[in-house]
Amino acid sequence: MTPDARPILGEVKEMKGFLQCNGFSGHGFMISPMVSSLLADLIVDGKTSAVLENLSLERFKGKK
User: Fold this and answer.
1) Model's pTM, two decimal places?
2) Neighbouring residues of 23: CB distance < 8 A, sequence distance ≥ 6
3) What gap in Å lies between CA 43 and CA 26, rounded to an integer?
């Protein structure tokens, strides 16, 4: 579970090709169809979205 109870989705900038899809806080089953679609678009077409940007690992950088 993440500190803000929201999942971490998308590529880790420091590790090209490493994608995260975790930290769902018990809600993974409910939102998995949309998450799968967003990540498939990212993997196949390189297409990103505001959802992926808002749920990236980057949101925790600089926070303590």
Assistant:
1) 0.84
2) 1, 2, 6, 7, 8
3) 25
